[in-house]
Amino acid sequence: QVQLAESGGGLVQAGGSLTLSCAASGRTFNTYRVGWFRQAPGKGRDVVAHINWSDDNTYYADSVKGRFTISKDSAKNTVYLQMNSLKPEDTAVYYCALAPIARGYDYWGQGTQVTVSS
Predict the structure, then answer these.
(1) Which positions ≥6 away from 103 have C-beta within 8 Å?
(2) Comparing C-alpha atoms, which of 37, 57, 55 is closest to residue 46?
């Protein structure tokens, strides 16, 4: 089993920055990918970014390209999401998720609220 714990959410003004952290514990040795997702009120859960554990290859949704950066610290089993130039439309609950090798996103964190005021 894997446990994921997000932190770093909060209230910020438009144009501001936040950094989210996702700390993984448990059986993380076969991690393939870690992703950040978000869900705004009344909307579905969408992928924001992901990072491949073995080669640091990254992906970003078009809506966050150039503003968000995903990174990891393998020694700490932690993935970060640096969010800059935040917009009110970035307001959502942000979740991190872990996909083991040859599987989908089997493990999810509890989510952290990000609210961007205009």
Answers:
(1) 32
(2) 37
